[in-house]
## 1
Amino acid sequence: MLNFEYYNPTRIVFGKDQLGRLPELLKENKAQRILLTYGQGSIKKTGLYQSIMDVLSDFHVVPFQGIEANPEYTTLLKARDLGREEKIDFILAVGGGSVIDGTKFIAGAMKYDGDPWDVLDKKEGCNFTEAVSFGTVLTLPATGSEANSGAVINRSEFEQKRVMGGPMFFPQFSFCDPTQVATLPKRQLANGITDAYMHTLEQYITYPSGNLLQERQAEAILATLVEIGPKVVENPSDYTLAANLMWCATHALNGVLRCGVPTDWVTHMIGHELTAFYGIDHARTLAIIAPRLYEAMFSGKKEKLAQYGKRIWNLTGSEEEIAKKAIESTERFFQSLGIDTRISDYTENHEGVEARVREVFETRGWTAMGEREAIDPSKVEEIVAAAI
Ligand code: NZQ
Ligand code: ZN
């Protein structure tokens, strides 16, 4: 088992009919002037916006509508400016991963004197060192952003997606209400299941870690998602199914699974570039890349692939056969949710994509990635080419 440090201060308020607790938690956080950040309007249609405004009648609330899926840098700068003008002391993010991630950026940018792009661009010496406190009301189980300190920001004029994070970006609290799942379109449900599944695999399909508990916890999430995934897509109003999806997604990226184990994350790194180039939904980019990455890195991953194949898919045969069949089962699982697993399923404009992704890896100096540091830009090119 590898050494690790685990820290997660986010209070999770899980379940239905909990919003009445919001004023109390805001007061605990000394919130008086609140920026309420949200997306393109789904929370108005579902009635959540009004429910929140009703419980916040004693607070000064400034709404900011319009954070896009794949939160857009220029939109977030407008929210930063509004937050400064209104002397905001707390931000409440209401939405999915994009709204929550965007809010993390706004929270850091409000306290940052320089150009915040320098922080995303990892310019030397440029970092967010403090942030406005924030909490979340989650509407889409997928990213785990409600319980972690990371965020991914999109700048479409540059066709770039950038990752940021830091200990000040843990939400103070997150309301996770499974009844929110009922209004999600099938596309977003399938995305949520796939993203949570892939967060788990990124921290599991590596090499045996000796952390038996963590491996079993990862397997518990995978097995639960396999069991409930297709059912929740068909019946998102089923509270038990929705609650299990929501708790799996939070668990998949709240930091527990990476304790004491090697992690990969290259599927995500490549996936972010596919979103930046073509606007493919985040989770779908993962379903496109993961099977091809596991094939390309098979020799280093086959022990864990075989363990996964036996324990999650009940496969039989030689270790090698099980490991291979496990990749096929994974791809079929994504397809069973309605997710296509090839780049060409999403765009005709893919000529040269493998060279473009390779170039990004080279430019950013990502030359030794993955759990064995064995993935270099030419390997990335090979993986992307195989995924077309
Ligand atoms: O914008 P609104 O109107 O709210 O509609 C959203 C959006 O169109 C809609 N939606 C959300 N909740 C709904 C709903 N529609 C009906 N009923 C509800 N209850 O769903 C659409 C997609 O929302 P979005 O927030 O973009 O989805 P998701 O939660 O999948 O977030 C994806 C983003 O998170 C990043 C991704 O890169 C992507 O930008 N990630 C963040 C991570 C993190 N912070 O830890 C890790 C992930 O790997 C991921 O990279
Ligand atoms: Zn993800």
## 2
Amino acid sequence: MCGIFGYIGSKPASSILIAGLKRLEYRGYDSAGICLVENQELFNCKSSGKIADLESKILNAKLPQATLGIGHTRWATHGEPTEINAHPHFDCKKEIAVVHNGIIENFQALKSLLEKEGHIFASQTDTEVLSHLIEKFYSGNNFEKAVQEAVEVLEGTFGLAIVCNKEQKIIAVKKGSPLVLGIGDKEIFVASDAAALISHTKRVIYLEDNEMAMLSTDGFAVKKFDGTIIEKEIQELKWSVEQIEKGGFEHFMLKEIFEQPQAIANTLRGRLSSNGVKFSFTLDPCFVKRIIILACGTSYYSGLIGKHIIERITGIPVEVDYASEFRYRNPLVNESDLAIVISQSGETADTLGALKTAKAKGAKTIGIVNVVGSTIAREVDAGIYLHAGPEIGVASTKAFTCQITALILLAVYLQQNKDDCWVDLNFLSQLQELPNQLQEVLSQAEKVKNIAQIIKTSTNALYLGRGTNYPVALEGALKLKEISYIHAEGYPAAEMKHGPIALIDENMPVVFLATKDETYEKILSNMQEVKARKGKIFAIVNSDDTLAKNLADEFIEVPFAVDLLSPIINVIPLQLLAYYVAVSKGIDVDKPRNLAKSVTVE
Ligand code: F6R
């Protein structure tokens, strides 16, 4: 949450900062600001609202043609999303400017102390203590030292970019919130996410916790907070500029939904053959007595499906926990446990916290992550990258289906290493069929769009599924609520009669996952129960299934797949449904209210 972008070089900084912030806007979009350094003076412009609002304000702001500056797009934690609370924040003398991603947990104590010493605060943010704290330690020529001293008293998480009016320099500081440097030709960038750097350079350096980088046109130096110099490796980004553009689609979310056949093929590529699954790590499955899957949100739901997959294929018991709950409940974990952490961004604060807890208790860890080089990817013992390409729409789509694909690969890998001869060739070939099957579902987008016109006026919706499709119901409901603001609940279909059935009347749309598996007959009975109470049934059904079609008011046909694979197919119409409902309600689907893509605060 919150995006930081900084630039030092020879080009006009202001337009580079705006372009960078636009790339980071998925991280927060309630207010934004920039600060430029020119002739020993700091110039700033801030605005509430989106980057486009800031951009138009800058046009009239008469800012200098500076070649050094920092910018920020905010997802509010402390203080409302007003212009005053927008970053950058300054000290009393306007010599220091700070942009921040994270939370300063001891800000209240620090603020009281600084106020007693005479500092005047302008905003309600936790961030502002930083600029005043640096001011307290700054004596006119010790910028770096002052930052070091300030950072030492901070508690919490922070990614920072700081400038000082007297220095042609940016100081970037990292503890808990991601920061990556982009190394250009006599120019250096700093950003919260490497995707924002691709149009400038593919050469990047990921900062680790407790590191700070001093950036100037002469180059950069990275040090530990205690001043020790660190040699950092420059890495090459693999993503292309095209991947982070909309490519003719109206929204990133729609593009990402349509990218799923290719994304899944990418997750499978090079890992799957008729001999089974190959990964670049080796893992002895014999030590694994139990698997714990840890994740948040959509990634948690793919973890719930992962439980079915792994238990069925390997016989190893699996628990799935919300990362935020796991980390604070002193969980029972030991050396024979394998913790699988799932995260699209690789930066989710709770998932990272849960990973650290599992590691500290002796578990081995595997990460299923999309963003290459992200913090979780670097912290785990072994990792599986999704290779889904950048996911920019706030609502997760392609990451979900690729996560399930990766969990299937991992389960097959574990099992084949336990039992040399185990390879279910039929299952593996069905897995390879998925991209084609997804293409078939996507070709029905127009039909889903029509169904969306019926649902868009509802205020509630129920999503029902069983077995591996119960988490799909949860995911379908989450997609609808987060981007269309319609209240939706996912339930195991059989649980409906234990309470939610009371909600059903002619105004309640009920979305059924009714494809053929072991509980199919029972789902049909649940559909009957809804029909008897005049609920409106929208069903995902197999193409050859007349029974389910007859029970439904509206249906979408999907190709048949075994129940371990069907979630990957069945979720597609639910993603499209949420998308078209939100679009028809005029909502900015890529940036729905109150949300941010990468949840780097607890
Ligand atoms: C929902 C959504 C969120 C994320 C969750 C975890 O569409 O995107 O629920 O799934 O915040 O994020 P990652 O996977 O980045 O850890």
